[in-house]
Amino acid sequence: MLKFIAPAAALSALIVAGAAYAQAAKLNDAQIAHIAYTAGNIDVAAGKQALAKSKDKAVRDFAAEMVRDHAAVNDQALALVKKLGVTPQDNPTSQALSKDAAAKQKSLAALNGAAFDKAYIANEIAFHKTVNGALSQTLIPNAQNAELKGLLQTGLKLFTEHQTHAEHLANGQR
What we know:
This protein is an all-alpha fold. The protein has one domain (about 25-170): Ferritin (Up-down Bundle). The chain has 6 helices and no strands. It has helices at about 1-25, 30-55, 55-85, 90-110, 115-140, 145-170. Helix 1 runs antiparallel to helix 4 and helix 2 runs antiparallel to helix 5.
């Protein structure tokens, strides 16, 4: 159990550090867009990994939902930055998220069956909880463009539903 909690704690620490960085550095909209897009890509990749490894119908359905929803939000984000003529800007928070996600994907790859399913769902809960916190406490308040702020708010509502869905799966509610 501890090996599943440690990566989630590390991810939480990265997001908190990223939030502190955002407050100190006052992230611009291009950086905020990059962080949100990176987080979406991470969950798409995690969902695809779950679809490739899991045999559990409820877990597979959830993973398919993650791929579909996060890809759709990312498509909307790309359309928005194109419309605004903004290029998403890489930053330490995006880099830390990507690095941690690669390590988490590697650790999940070593698991199979129910152990994978349990670890994947636990990671989804932790990831959504942390990203939702970053959205509500840092990214949305710091976004300057009203359309970007609106997209982030829409994403937060959807990702809060994802967190609840994952929590239900973890509690055996299919």
